[in-house]
Amino acid sequence: MLPKEIIKKIRRIEIKTSRMVNDVFAGQYHSVFKGRGMEFDEVREYQPGDEIRSIDWNVTARMGHPFIKKFVEERQLTVMLLMDASGSSFFGTKGQLKSEIAAELCSVLAYSAIKNNDRVGLIIFSDRIEKFIPPRKGSRHVLRVIREVLYHKPQGKKTDIRCALDYLNNVMHKKTVSFLISDFLDCEFKKQLSITNKRHDLIAVAITDPREQELPKTGIIRFEDAETQEVCLIDAADKTLREAFAKNSAIVLAKREKVFKHSGVDLINISTDKPYTKELIRFFRKREKKRKR
Questions:
Q1: Long-range contact pairs involving 53-58 (C-beta distance under 8 Å, separation at least 24)
Q2: 116 close to 288: Cβ distance less than 8 angstroms
Q3: Structural domain boundaries in the chain
Q4: What is residue 224's predicted lDDT score, i.e. its pLDDT?
Q5: 34: buried, middle or exposed (CB in 10 Å: 19+, 13-18, 0-12)?
Q6: Helix H segments across the chain?
Q7: Dmax of the chain from CA atoms?
Q8: How many CA atoms lie within 13 A of 220 on its CB side?
Q9: Can you tell me whether residue 283 is helix, strand or coil?
Q10: Residue 199's closest CA among 108, 78, 97, 32?
Q11: DSSP letters of 203-266?
Q12: Tens digits of per-residue pLDDT, 95-139?
């Protein structure tokens, strides 16, 4: 039996995200992902009013007059949510923890999928696979997904993105639209990123906090690594130290973006101090333009 406060939180998330899907993301998800599951059926002669983009230029060249590709109805899409629940996700200095934003993002994406009659599944991971919910349809299934992203207590503290991607490839044999939601405080997952993106439509959602990019101008700060439990003290009043910290953080972010670009994986950057809706809408619009081209 879930505690009352968790039930209330699930209900709040349900109301907030379902309203957001209806009011903000109406049509965005559908226009980006629907149509990617169309299956080729046959070719037929071009008729006035047919889409120029549907012309099969190879057949047209052979036959000497235009032919178009005909497709059958769209297949049902499968959306997989891969949520990082490692120790570093339970950090935030601007209103929400990274883990709370990740839970809301999962809820928004799950509701978007269900609203379009797609299946949605969930993989929660840390340095191991914490939870796997096979993809299904329906509002009751979405509530189960929301419950798990809010209530699951991870056993692992560290991050292993390779493990999560390998697991996805092993359990999902058909192509999915997969959102990998993490702060990506991990390394050496470039190879698995490329492999997974060839099998699935992989989208990375990187959640960061402003204090991970720059230090406040204060005095002595006690830092504890959420994944290793290592503790250190630094003097944030030291300008040279603050500048070095900011420079190193910028280098890490630049390297991360380079990895995603090289792997052909779309990246959505989310910060705990800004509304994530704008970044999601920007991604949807960018994807739609790319698909039309």
A1: none
A2: no
A3: 39-71, 75-292
A4: 78
A5: middle
A6: 4-23, 28-33, 57-63, 98-115, 139-151, 161-171, 190-199, 239-263, 276-292
A7: 78
A8: 4
A9: helix
A10: 78
A11: EEEEEE-GGGT---S-SEEEEE-TTT--EEEEETT-HHHHHHHHHHHHHHHHHHHHHHHHHT-E
A12: 789 999 999 999 999 988 888 889 999 999 999 999 999 999 998
CATH 3.40.50.410 fits 75-292, yes or no: yes
Q: Which residue type, as a one-letter code, is found at position 185?
A: L
Least confident of 23-37, 74-88, 233-247: 23-37
Verdict on whether the full-model pTM lies above 0.90 = no
SS3 22: helix
Residue range 238-248: average pLDDT?
89
Q: Which amino acid is at 283?
A: F
Residues 6+ apart with CB under 8 A from 278: none
- Residue 34 — very low, low, confident or very high, per pLDDT cuts 50/70/90? low
Mean pLDDT of the chain: 86
